Amino acid sequence: MATPSGRSLQAKLMRNIMVLAAALTLSASYLGARRETQDILAQVQTDGVALARSYALSAGNAMMVSAGLGRVTGEARRSQGIRYLKICDADRRIIAHTDVDLIDTIDSGPLIEEALGASITVVDRGDRPVILIERARRSGILKVALPIIILNSVAGALEVGLDLAGISQAIAGAWRHAAMITAVAFALGSLVAYLFARTITRPVQQLVQATELVASGDLSRKISVTSKDEIGLLAESFNSMTGELAAAQQMQKRMFESEKLVALGEMSAGVAHEIRNPLGSIRTCASRIEEIAQNDQAVAKYASIVSREADRVDRLIRQLLSFTRPAPVDFQYVDLTQIIDEALGLALLKAKLAGITAEVSYDPSVPMVFADADRLRQATLNLMFNAIDAMPSGGTLGVVTQLSPDSTSIEIAVSDTGEGISEEFADRVFTPFFTTRSKGTGLGLAVVAQVVSEHSGAIGFACRPGGGTVFRMTLPASPA
After folding, report:
1. Into which CATH architecture does domain 230-324 fall?
2. Architecture of the domain made up of 5-173
3. pLDDT mean over 110-115
4. Residue 225 confidence class, pLDDT cut points 50, 70, 90
5. Average of per-residue pLDDT across 427-456
6. Sequence ranges of the domains in the chain
């Protein structure tokens, strides 16, 4: 079951990390821009006070000689960045101004009044000049007022207005710079958040997908372990769990099959006992009738059919008993190639009658195997007979043995060039008594699966693209 994208662990991690990154970035950018703005304004105020002191000194000298105030305001008028400069006497009358129309008027501003009432000691130290900043939307004025001191008395006051248009642009640039840094940092933070979340959640997603597959019955799913952290330990535990579940499932399946065989064996033994007694009488009577009616060909023919069919029923009972109550296995080290070759010799007698040729390839590196020779020969012969029956119009019987690259197992492949096996029958091929042939008993491949299980091996099949089927029987190269 897929998790909605908005509720996934990766989305939650990314969202939380991005929110934290955005908060930290915005805070840092805001504090940085604010500090830069404060530094700019502080520097402007320092420069404005120094300029005002310079003009106040010049104005004081001019007032002492009663001449030269026009030069002071004229110089200010020509200077860039100065909006106005006004000089007042002790009665707040404007005696000089960059705007000549305001001369001889009374100043009503609060800065001149405050400057005129300033303490001389404070002015001498320069600790507290009178400063006012008037900010507009895109500009502003920095107003600085200072008393004019002549012979240790306040003779007047000076006020200068400095244009902050350029300063406002610098401050706006600082905030734009902070916004750009915020955007770039947020983008990089988003990328880091994505990569970090992906690194954390990708193994978890793989684990979730594997868990869903296991829940659906696929116990072959494994997770690649790429780290030694908690996620890696979790993956190792999951792989161990699925391995144990698969082993338990296989054991349960074998126990179920064993229980079925035991029940079938008990039933078969009882049925065989009840059938064989009358069957023996039927065969005896049929043989006697055949002897008596030698001159009557019709009677002799029917008696022969009865005898032959009785033999077929008896053979079927023996096969059933052999499957449900197999003889004890006798494991010894045997030559696998020799066993397969002996089975092939018997199979070729039937194959030649159907116009079937054989292609054989034995791996010379195949070692001796620990097996029951008779049971293994029977299983191999059953596979060959099954392949021959799949080619009623002739074909090629293939027999190949091969040792695995790691020398731990041996594969025996028996193939045919028949029509192949339909998908609807694929999962029932090794089921006892299942057959698609009118004359088959359905026990041949079931016996093969039984023998392979006795030898701790595996059996499977596949349909070849060009037609036909190949059965692969895998046995351990050494005792299991």
Report:
1. Orthogonal Bundle (1.10)
2. 2-Layer Sandwich (3.30)
3. 85
4. low
5. 76
6. 5-173, 230-324, 332-476
Length of the chain: 480
231-253 per-residue burial string, b: 16 or more CB within 10 A, e: under 16 = beeebeebbeebeeeeeeeeeee
SS3 labels along the chain? CCCCHHHCHHHHHHHHHHHHHHHHHHHHHHHHHHHHHHHHHHHHHHHHHHHHHHHHHHHHHHHHHCCCHHHHHHHHHHCCCEEEEEEEECCCEEEEECCHHHCCCECCCHHHHHHHCCCHHHHHHCCCCEEEEEECCCCEEEEEEEEEEECCEEEEEEEEEEECHHHHHHHHHHHHHHHHHHHHHHHHHHHHHHHHHHHHHHHHHHHHHHHHHHHCCCCCCCCCCCCCCHHHHHHHHHHHHHHHHHHHHHHHHHHHHHHHHHHHHHHHHHHHHHHHHHHHHHHHHHHHHHHHCCCCHHHHHHHHHHHHHHHHHHHHHHHHHHHHCCCCCCCEEECHHHHHHHHHHHHHHHHHHCCEEEEEECCCCCCCEEECHHHHHHHHHHHHHHHHHCCCCCEEEEEEEEECCCCCEEEEEEECCCCCCCHHHHHHCCCCCCCCCCCCCCCHHHHHHHHHHHCCCEEEEEECCCCCEEEEEEEECCCC
Count CB neighbours of 342 within 10 A.
15
Query: Model confidence at 173, in pLDDT bands (50, 70, 90)?
Result: confident
- The model's pTM is 0.44
Q: Give the pLDDT band of residue 283 (cuts 50, 70, 90).
A: confident
- Whether residue 362 is predicted with pLDDT greater than 90 in this model: the reply is yes
> Per residue in 328-340, pLDDT tens?
778 899 999 999 9
The answer to whether the CB of 183 falls within 8 A of the CB of 98 is no
Evaluate if residue 135 carries a pLDDT over 70. no
**pLDDT > 90: what percent of the chain?**
11
Q: How confident is the model at residue 125 (pLDDT cuts 50, 70, 90)?
A: very low
Closest CA to 373 of 308, 454, 305, 265: 454
Architecture of domain 332-476: 2-Layer Sandwich (3.30)
Residue 254's pLDDT is 65
CA distances from 284 to 270, 277, 302 (A): 22, 11, 14
So what's the pLDDT on residue 127? 43
Residue 274 above 90 pLDDT? no
